[in-house]
C-alpha cells in the first residue's frame, strides 16, 4: 500500500466480498442448488436411522449467510457432510468468498 501497487485490486476484492456478504439468495435458486447437490449423492453416509434427506431450504440471514435446511433428521447431517454441502454451495452460487452457516431442522418441527 505504501507503493500504491495493487490497491485497486484489493479494493475490488473488498467490494466483491461485501457484495457476497449481504447477498440474499432467492429460495427457488437455493433449492435448485440443493437439488444438484442431492443428485450427486456423495458425502452422505447411510446410518441405522437412514439417509440424510433434505426437503427444502431457505436463507434466514446475511452476514454471515445463514441457510436453514428442513431435513428428515438433523442428527444424520454430520460435520463432514455439512462441509461438503457448503463447499458445493460455494461452487454453485456466487458466495465463494464469505462464511456460510448451515443449520438443519426437522421438517416435522413446528417451531
Automatic annotation (TrEMBL):
Any one GO MF annotation of this record: ribosome binding
UniProt xrefs under InterPro entries: KH_dom-like (IPR032859), KH_dom-like_a/b (IPR015946)
Sequence ranges assigned to domain GTPase Der C-terminal KH-domain-like in this UniProt record: 25-105
SUPFAM superfamilies: Probable GTPase Der, C-terminal domain (SSF82653)
Cited Pfam families: KH_dom-like (PF14714)
UniProt protein name: GTPase Der C-terminal KH-domain-like domain-containing protein
Amino acid at each position: 500500500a505504501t507503493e500504491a501497487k495493487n490497491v485497486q485490486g484489493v479494493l475490488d476484492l473488498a467490494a466483491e466480498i461485501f457484495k457476497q456478504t449481504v447477498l440474499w439468495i432467492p429460495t427457488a435458486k437455493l433449492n435448485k442448488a440443493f437439488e444438484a447437490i442431492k443428485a450427486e449423492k456423495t458425502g452422505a453416509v447411510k446410518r441405522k436411522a437412514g439417509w440424510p434427506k433434505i426437503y427444502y431450504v431457505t436463507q434466514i440471514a446475511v452476514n454471515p449467510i445463514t441457510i436453514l435446511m428442513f431435513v428428515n433428521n438433523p442428527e444424520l447431517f454430520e460435520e463432514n457432510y455439512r462441509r461438503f454441502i457448503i463447499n458445493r454451495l460455494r461452487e454453485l452460487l456466487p458466495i465463494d468468498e464469505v462464511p456460510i452457516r448451515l443449520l438443519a431442522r426437522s421438517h416435522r418441527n413446528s417451531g
